[in-house]
């Protein structure tokens, strides 16, 4: 159920917005009692021309926890400066 | 001769048979063949819609006219070429040679090939559950084509021919797979504790081109479900009408 996309590493792209959703896939055609939690993210990025592009992806709970840890590390690095 | 109701009026129809003796005579109705209904005379109210449809395709009707006088082995050879061409082979040269050796004029070759091709395509396109061998034979009985065609449509080559017939040609793609999820949105960046239910659907088409995943909130899902029930009901009604014979 994961749709992952590469974030552009183009330095001229600018972060615009971050929207998220915490969801639970209750059931599906192959599994009636799925109960699969996930975090879906919609990232808005503006490229050098100003055009806003949307990137969507999903994370499992462990993936999100890793994601969260990255941000904590970034915050710690900023603090240390 | 038999009466047949055609577009609300009565008219004479030539039955699908060779006329007179010796040599093929095309029906005097010739190129302007009226639409022919595949049923027995005097039986118009109980006929089932055949696999060729309520209206016999003109190329099949034209072919049937020529069959009466066609040599059986020539017919079989032509049929073999049609089957090979359905599988993608180029048989044009071989067909021309056969036409020369069997002394068949080119336009007859064209009529025969077109008719056989259409007939086989129509039959092979149907699943073997919806067209039974006996029904097929009965319907072909009226066209004097029985044994050879039945052995192709229901013989050992059927799986290959069926899969070729399923390939996209003039047909629209069909749904090959359908996945769904019931999704609960617990909270979002815009709204905490939203607890919204929605259905996520992902149909995959037989042409494999694109898969679409879309979301339907519960209200939209109910509408979709209602529409499907309506379509099923219409299909059932139509089936009943066909069983009772089409009235015009």
UniProtKB/TrEMBL annotation, chain A:
InterPro entries, sorted: COMM, COMMD4/6/7/8
Domain COMM: 14-81
GO MF term (any one): NF-kappaB binding
Domain of life: Eukaryota
Family according to the record: Belongs to the COMM domain-containing protein 6 family.
Purpose: Scaffold protein in the commander complex that is essential for endosomal recycling of transmembrane cargos; the commander complex is composed of the CCC subcomplex and the retriever subcomplex. May modulate activity of cullin-RING E3 ubiquitin ligase (CRL) complexes. Down-regulates activation of NF-kappa-B. Inhibits TNF-induced NFKB1 activation.
Name of the protein: COMM domain-containing protein 6
Species of origin: Macaca nemestrina (Pig-tailed macaque)
UniProtKB/TrEMBL annotation, chain B:
Domain COMM span(s) in chain numbering: 174-239
GO cellular-component term (any): nucleus
Pfam families: COMM_domain, COMM_HN
InterPro entries for this protein: COMM, COMMD5
Family annotation (PANTHER family): COMM DOMAIN CONTAINING PROTEIN 5, COMM DOMAIN-CONTAINING PROTEIN 5
Record-stated family: Belongs to the COMM domain-containing protein 5 family.
Name this protein carries in UniProt: COMM domain-containing protein 5
Organism (species): Macaca nemestrina
């Amino acid at each position: 159920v994961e749709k992952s996309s590469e974030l552009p590493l183009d330095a001229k792209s600018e972060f615009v917005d971050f929207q998220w959703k915490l969801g639970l896939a209750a059931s599906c055609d192959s599994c009636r009692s799925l109960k699969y939690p996930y975090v879906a993210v919609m990232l808005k990025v503006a490229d050098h021309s100003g055009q806003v592009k949307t990137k969507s992806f999903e994370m499992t709970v462990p993936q999100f926890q890793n994601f969260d840890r990255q941000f904590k590390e970034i915050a710690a690095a900023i603090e240390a400066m | 001769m038999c009466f047949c109701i055609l577009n609300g009026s009565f008219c004479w129809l030539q039955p699908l048979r060779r006329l007179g003796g010796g040599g093929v005579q095309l029906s005097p109705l010739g190129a302007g063949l009226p639409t022919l209904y595949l049923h027995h005379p005097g039986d118009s109210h109980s006929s089932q819609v055949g696999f060729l449809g309520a209206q016999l395709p003109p190329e099949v009707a034209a072919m049937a006219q020529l069959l009466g006088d066609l040599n059986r082995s020539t017919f079989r050879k032509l049929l073999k070429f049609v089957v090979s061409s359905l599988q993608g082979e180029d048989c044009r040269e071989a067909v021309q040679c056969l036409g020369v050796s069997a002394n068949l004029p080119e336009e007859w070759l064209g009529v025969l090939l077109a008719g056989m091709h259409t007939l086989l395509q129509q039959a092979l396109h149907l699943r073997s559950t919806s067209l039974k061998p006996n029904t097929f034979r009965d319907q072909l009985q009226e066209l004097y084509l029985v044994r050879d065609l039945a052995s192709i449509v229901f013989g050992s080559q059927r799986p290959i021919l069926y899969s070729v017939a399923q390939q996209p040609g003039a047909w629209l793609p069909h749904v090959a797979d359908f996945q769904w999820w019931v999704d609960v949105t617990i909270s979002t960046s815009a709204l905490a504790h939203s607890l919204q239910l929605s259905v996520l659907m992902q149909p995959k088409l037989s042409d494999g081109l694109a898969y679409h995943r879309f979301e339907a909130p519960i209200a939209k899902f109910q509408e979709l479900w209602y529409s499907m029930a309506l379509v099923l009901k219409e299909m059932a009604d139509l089936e009943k009408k066909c069983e009772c014979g089409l009235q015009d």
